[in-house]
Amino acid sequence: MILLVTMDKGSMSVGSHYADQFASPTRFVWQTQTSTRRDDMRGRVISGVEPGWTVHLFLRKSKLRDGRAAPFRYAGPVQFAGWEGKAPITVQCDLAEPVPQQLRELYGVQG
């Protein structure tokens, strides 16, 4: 599964209520779409209970760069670490490697 996450949603017409952020250089917290349920296929893949799947995280700071669609950067595979809520679900996941130092300010990574 590929997660495409835009960190700053202020310029987007929908989704600005979703809170996605780094809790640490290796812990990412994001919110699923409201249609995702813990027991549906997407929820099972995210939580790691559905066999044969790996979740990969791609990030971008904002939707646009120089008036065009901003590219996503690969952050790596993530491992499910927990979740809260129902719609949307707030998911905590761990990256295998810390966010590189040169990208921490861009993504607002503390620590």
Write the layout of secondary structure elements.
Elements: E1 2-8, E2 21-22, E3 27-31, H1 41-47, E4 55-62, E5 64-65, E6 68-69, E7 73-84, E8 90-95, H2 101-107
Parallel strand pairs: 1-4
Antiparallel strand pairs: 2-3, 3-8, 4-7, 5-6, 7-8
Structural class estimated from helices and strands: mainly beta
User: What is the end-to-end distance?
Assistant: 28 Å
Total of DSSP H or I helical runs spanning 4+ residues: 2
User: Biggest sheet: strands side by side, in what order?
Assistant: 1-4-7-8-3-2
Topology as a string of helices (H) and strands (E)? EEEHEEEEEH
> Rounded to an integer, what's the Rg over CA atoms?
14 Å
- Percentage of β-strand residues: 35-45%
- Number of E-state strands: 8
Shape: globular
Largest sheet: 6 strands, mixed
Helix content: 10-25%
Poorly predicted segments: none
**Average pLDDT reading:** 91
Can you summarize this structure?
The chain contains 2 helices and 8 strands. The chain is mainly beta.
Notes on the structure:
The chain has helices at 41-47, 101-107; strands at 2-8, 21-22, 27-31, 55-62, 64-65, 68-69, 73-84, 90-95. It is mainly beta. The strands form two sheets. Strands 1-4-7-8-3-2 form a six-stranded mixed beta sheet, with helices on one face. The radius of gyration is 14 Å and the shape is globular. The model has no long low-confidence stretch (mean pLDDT 91).
